[in-house]
Specification:
Blueprint (H helix, E strand, L loop, with lengths): L8 E10 L6 H9 L4 E10 L5 H6 L9 E7 L5 H11 L4 E6 L3 E2 L3 H9 L6 E4 L1 E3 L6 E3 L1 H7 L3 H8 L8 E3 H7 L10 H10 L6 E4 L4 E3 L10 H14 L11 H23 L2 H24 L19
Parallel strand pairs: 1-2, 1-4, 2-3, 6-10, 7-11
Antiparallel strand pairs: 4-9, 5-11, 6-9, 7-8
Helix pairs in contact: 5-6, 6-10, 9-10, 10-11
Length: 317
């Protein structure tokens, strides 16, 4: 009688930040359990949910196909950055993969990503993704933007093309960069990738296979347009000094990034039919651009804090 081959495991901890995700976390965890190459563990941090997210996650333990499922809960909502830091501190494997509790991986995500990382000195790999379902599904071509710039770091700074839930990264590199900034309520992931990759010569890869499905939800972190704009401008200023060691004009990259953030906000307000916010964003755009330029030229931003120590415990920030 034939027997199925035992599942193969990779030395990966999956980091899952969850908030008010009782209705979606099972789908997320099942996409982890369905991997053709399985991670050794999934670490879920329920960030102060009131809808039973932690219990919904724990209920999936019997269906994880040999993957250790570890679920932690905070009493209050501290934000995605703090939740991810907690999960990283609890993780045990040398590679970290990131997935939010309302999204899902395609079955070959880990196998394909690790095939690009094996035998290299890359510290991070990411890939394309889908949004939507069926005929309405859209393929987001992140690799194309990765390859558009002669310097991938400058391209990343300008266009922010790394989807957080596609990333597999070396745990030691995440710790060395300091983990996620919990003070940033949006774009903490973009901030961390820039922190990890800012040293010239640091290798990373974005490849062109859509192995992730994002499920945008009303009220999700991507929906906070004004907050996302403010955090994005702050991050643009934070890494302005690092552009000096790169080819091209640092000021041009700063202006490109700040302009792109405003255009994104304008598109969202336009799609929502919110004419007041659209006009306000449009009017503030040149003033914000001037303010961040003067600030970067006159007083460089302070160094980024370390929010996780080298042993993975909480830092002082």
């Amino acid at each position: 009688m034939a027997h199925d081959a035992p599942p193969e495991f990779a030395d990966v901890s999956v980091i899952v930040a969850a908030y008010q995700a009782a209705g979606t976390v099972a789908r997320t965890l099942r996409s982890i359990a369905a991997q053709t190459l399985k991670p050794r563990e999934a670490v879920v941090v329920d960030d102060g949910s009131t809808d039973g997210t932690a219990k919904a996650a724990e209920a999936e333990a019997p269906r994880m196909n040999g993957i250790r499922l570890r679920v932690f809960r905070t009493d209050d909502n501290r934000g995605a950055g703090a939740a991810r830091n907690r999960a990283i501190a609890e993780s045990t494997e040398p590679w970290l993969a990131f997935l939010d509790a309302d999204d899902e991986w395609l079955p070959e995500k880990l196998e394909r990503t690790l095939s690009h990382l094996e035998g290299t000195d890359l510290i991070l790999a990411a890939h394309d993704y889908w949004t939507g379902e069926g005929e309405a599904a859209r393929h987001h071509e992140c690799e194309r933007r990765f390859r558009e710039s002669p310097d991938p770091f400058v391209g990343l700074y300008r266009k922010g093309f790394i989807p957080s839930c596609s990333v597999v990264a070396r745990r030691d590199a995440v710790l060395a960069a300091g983990g996620f900034d919990p003070e940033l309520r949006n774009a903490q992931d973009f901030d961390l990738w820039l922190a990890m990759l800012k040293k010239p010569g640091t290798p990373f890869l974005v490849f062109g296979e859509p192995l992730l499905r994002y499920h945008p939800a009303p009220g999700g972190i991507m929906s906070h347009t004004e907050r996302r704009l403010r955090c994005g401008v702050a991050i643009a200023a934070r890494y302005y000094p690092d552009l000096g060691a790169r080819p091209g004009s640092a000021l041009a990259s700063l202006w490109f990034r700040v302009t792109a953030l405003h255009l994104e906000a304008l598109r969202v307000h336009g799609a929502q039919g919110n004419i007041v916010k659209l006009l306000l964003t449009l009017g503030l755009w040149p003033f914000r651009l001037a303010a961040v330029t003067i600030s970067c030229l006159m007083s460089p931003p302070p160094p980024r804090g370390h929010f996780l120590t080298t042993d993975g415990t909480a830092g002082n920030g």
